[in-house]
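As agreed, record minuted below.
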Amino acid sequence: MVNLGSMYERGVAVRKRDVKKAMSLYQDAARTGHPGAMNNIGVMYAAGKGVTRDVIEARRWLRR
């Protein structure tokens, strides 16, 4: 799911770039304990990609 999320985030090999879909896929992977997905969620919160920018939430995800 993380790789698919990255594809949607970057718009590679998918019909269109969709950062909200990417975030959803990252969250699914994070629920299974995938550390890369947790990192990607933190980065997206820090940058405000697909979500409202929230440095506190970003920090929480990046520390996991």
About this structure: The chain has a mean pLDDT of 94. Helices lie at 2-10, 19-31, 35-47, 55-62. The chain has one domain: 2-62. The two ends are 18 Å apart (CA to CA).
